[in-house]
Design goal:
alpha/beta, two-stranded antiparallel ribbon, 7 helices
Length: 164
Amino acid sequence: MSAKEIDKLIEALGILIVDPNAHMRKLSRTMLMNVGAKSVYEAADGLSAIDVIRHANPDVMLLDWEMPVLSGPQIMHIVRSPGVFAKPNLPVIMLSDRALRSQVHEAMRLGVHEFLLKPTSPKALRDRLISILLRPRPMVQIGKYYVPEPRRPIAPNELRHQAA
């Protein structure tokens, strides 16, 4: 796919930024617009995020881990509920200001597609969007979790851990 075609795909996306920090939302919006996004929605807390997903129907969500009212993990539990939530396949890029291995593993177990450390760069954000667009992973049920199909096989000990 050509760079021009990729730019058109990014331009057509509706992207929701969910972050309690107004400065970080503005920074994310600016980076998204710099990589070609035209339709960007914002939410400052978890309840607002759920409302925007239901009414604006974004194509991708950038979600902060630490949120008031509903945390990033709580939002993921709600969104990744097929049969209950209207958009359980919504691609999610989780953002966090801490790169704890346990947090990254928990985010992946909850069904995020990508994980980025804040503050991120326009290039890293664009790369994650391209990954979601050009190499979409089907959603699958693993234990009690509804997640993007793993990029690598899951080891038996990881399945036991996820089923717990």
